[in-house]
Every structure is written in C-alpha cells, then in structure tokens.
Specification:
heterodimer; A: 51 residues; mainly alpha; 2 helices; B: Aminopeptidase; two-stranded antiparallel sheet; 32% helix
Chain lengths: 51, 382
C-alpha cells in the first residue's frame, strides 16, 4: 500500500512539473518566467530522486 | 530566445544543486575494523525485507576469547547528533575484548545520514581532523530521507500502542521501536534491530544521542527500569572519577516508540540512551555551520543560558565534539565495568577505548584509523 501511495505522489509531482513548464511557456513577463523555473527545480530534483 | 536563456539558467541551477545532493547522499565513509572485530554481518541477516535497502546497516561484531555478555551499541539513530556515531566508530576501530561481545551499528538509520534538515541550512558533511589529514562524515538528519520513505501521513499512530505522535516522526527511528515487520522502512529497520537484540541475546543495548541545551533531557543516561540501578551506579562513578557529571532519567512509560522504552519492554535486554549536549541543535543558535557543529560555540546560545533558558551550562568554551565523544566513551566503559563486576558470567571486558580525558587531550581524530594504510579488501563503508 505504501508503495502505491509513493508512486501516486511521484505521478502528482510529474503532473505539477508539466503544469509548471506549460505555464512557463505561456508567460510573457521575464520575472514570472524566472519564478516558474525556480519553482520547477525542486520538482525535477524529486523526480530524479536527487532531493 | 529569452525563454531559452532562463531555461538554461534553471538547468544550471538544478545541475549544481543536484550534484551537491548526489555527492552528499553517496559520500562513502570508510571504516577500518579494529583488532576486536571478528566479523561483520548485515542488519538484513536478522530481517530479510531490510536486505539490500539503504538501511541494511553493517553490524560489526567484536568478540573476546572468553564467553561473557553481549552489548549492542547503536550509533546514528539520529545522525545529526554526530558524537554518538563517532563514539561508536572509536569502539569499532579500537576496542579489544577479552570477554564477551560488543555489536556495533554505526548507521542505525543510514537513510537519515543521507539528507539534511529541510530549511535548516545544515552543512552536508563535516570533517574530523586527524594526523593523516581528516575523515569526512555525512551530516545527516533526525529523520529518514524522504527519498526512501515518502509521503508522511497526516497522522502517525505508533505501532503497536496506537499512540498518536507527530506526523513527521514516522521517519524517526527513535519513535518507531519496537518496529513493525510490514511497516514503513523506518519501522522495518526498528523491527530488524529488535530482532537482532532477541536473536543475539543482547544483555544491554546503548543508544547514543545528543540534545539541544534547551531540552530538559540532557547530559544524562535515560534508563529503562531494568537498567535503573546500573545507570545510577554509573552516574555516581562517572561523576566522581571521570571528570564530568551525568544524571539519570527514568524512561517514561507514557511516551512510546523510544529505544529506551520499547527495547526494554519488547526484549530481555536492558535499554539505555545516552544524551550529550549539542548547541548546534538549539533553536536560538547563530550560523548553522561546520564550525558550530564541531566547536559547540555559539554566542546566542550562551546568551540564552545567561537568561536561564537552558538545562545545561554553556560558556565561551562551548561544547567541543571531543568533549561530547569522550562523555559517551567513558559512560559506556563505566557501564561495562559496573555490569561486569556484578555479572561475572555475563562480563564484557574491553580495552583500547579512550576515556573522556584522553579523547579531549588527543582529539577524536587520534582514534580514527587511516583507511589508506589498510588493504582495501578489509575496509568497510558506511
């Protein structure tokens, strides 16, 4: 059961990462683009199992 | 073009951060088994589901020629309390036994050695200076790495008592004893340690810790009722012979999951927990860096002491790592001497381990062995 819940959390993380990339591509303002990239980093690190 | 530049910037940041985290998680800590080590087994030998996981810890078995009692030393239950791991390291690399056995685990929660506290600005590692250059250790945290156990539940119910504990403590080794065979990694690790204690017929289990000075349980031996007399006698002898004072606290029956309570209840072993002062952990500390970890000097903690907010003294000399390690080695030696005097058939006689005064005089690094001088095939890594 724990393994399934962990897998679901990784799927959620991937889903949020995709949303962040999508929003990054839609932005017109550079400050918002930087913000989305910074927010994206911990999600990527978790998906890569680095942090 | 601008988006591409920002994306590249993000990738560079992620690369630097990721490399740092990877290096920290995979830093290899060499162990030179001392003359007393007869064999090294794995925690997974006592509970198969742990085998091959990050928490399949090395168990160093030190044996004397004559039979006697069996002692278990637990280092790294909370890796961010490094004096405990270092004291266990000194026993592994230096102790010689004539009677009995000592089992040593240097990384009771190895997963917790591979991460530092989120938002805590902890250093990823620290180095103990030695005559041959220095030995680097992972800093670690109080809790198992979320990469190994995630997510945390909203509510953590301790097994088997169902007492409600802080949700994050489901990753705290010292809130998950006696462990659950089909539980989380942390619970399974506790179960494996409990199984080891049962199968090896351990007489005394000693769990090394450190505590912030704002925590009332400090500079003390926390003892299960089975070990209250032993701890009290050790406290008296230490206070009169070793050059420092240490108190005794009874293991509370109402707070579950702690090694000193659950191991004593679930096995035949006497369970004890040692606490040394570590200003690095205090909430009112200043910069959380390697210097504070090793010197134990912090002007803000001193100021808190002057305002009567601490449960242990501190001055400008701080609480250096050698003082904290020496407290642990001397306390174990005193416990063993008293135990052996009272239980001739279960005696554990050990030499080669420095006491408090010697650790302070020579430094902890004087008792760490140079891995470069040893056949690589004989080295172990934590």
């Amino acid at each position: 059961m724990d393994t399934i819940v962990t897998l679901l959390y990784y799927l959620l993380t991937a889903y949020v990462a995709v949303l962040l990339v999508r929003n990054f591509l839609k932005r017109k303002n550079w400050q918002e683009e930087v913000l989305y990239i910074l927010v994206l980093i911990p999600f990527i690190l978790r998906l890569l199992r680095l942090k | 073009m601008r988006k591409a530049a920002i994306a590249v910037l993000g990738a560079v940041l992620a690369l630097f951060a990721g490399t740092s985290f990877y290096r920290s998680r995979h830093l290899r800590e060499p162990v030179v088994p001392g003359p007393g080590v007869s064999r090294v087994v794995k925690l997974g030998d006592y509970f198969a589901p742990i085998r091959g996981t990050v928490n399949d810890a090395n168990v160093y078995v030190l044996e004397g020629k004559e039979p006697g009692g069996t002692i278990l030393l637990l280092g790294g239950t909370h890796p961010e309390e490094p004096a405990g791991r270092l004291a266990a390291w000194i026993f592994t690399e230096n102790a010689v036994l004539t009677r009995g056995r000592i089992l040593v685990i240097l990384s009771a929660n190895r997963s917790a050695t591979t991460a530092t506290r989120l938002g805590g600005a902890y250093p990823p590692d620290f180095t103990i200076p030695t005559a041959w250059g220095g030995q680097m250790f992972r800093m670690g945290d109080r809790w198992s790495n979320p990469l190994d156990q995630w997510p945390d539940p909203e509510v953590y119910l301790h097994y088997p008592t169902r007492q409600e504990l802080a949700y994050v403590d489901i990753r705290n080794l010292n809130r998950a004893f006696p462990g659950r065979p089909n539980g989380t990694l942390t619970e399974q690790t506790c179960f494996a340690i409990t199984e080891l204690i049962r199968r090896e017929k351990v007489d005394i289990e000693i769990d090394f810790h450190e505590a912030e000075l704002q925590y009332p349980v400090i500079s003390t031996i926390v003892a299960h009722e089975k070990g209250a007399d032993l701890a009290a006698a050790a406290s008296m002898f230490i206070s009169s012979l070793e050059g420092f004072s240490i108190g005794v606290e009874n293991s509370p029956k109402a707070l579950r999951g702690l090694s000193h309570r659950e191991i004593g209840d679930a096995t035949d072993a006497i369970s004890l927990l040692l606490e040394a002062p570590e200003p690095f952990l205090d909430a009112t500390r200043g910069r959380t860096n390697r210097e504070l970890l090793l010197t134990g000097k912090d002007e803000f903690v001193v100021r808190a002491g002057k305002r009567g907010l601490l449960f242990e003294k501190i001055d400008e000399k701080g609480w250096p790592i050698d003082v904290r390690v020496g407290r642990h080695t001397s306390t174990v030696l005193q416990l063993l001497e008293i135990w052996s005097a009272d239980h001739a058939d279960k005696a554990v006689d050990v030499t080669g381990v420095p006491r408090y005064g010697e650790v302070i005089q020579k430094g902890t690094g004087a008792f760490l062995k140079d891995p470069k001088t040893v056949d690589p095939a004989k080295l172990y890594f934590e």
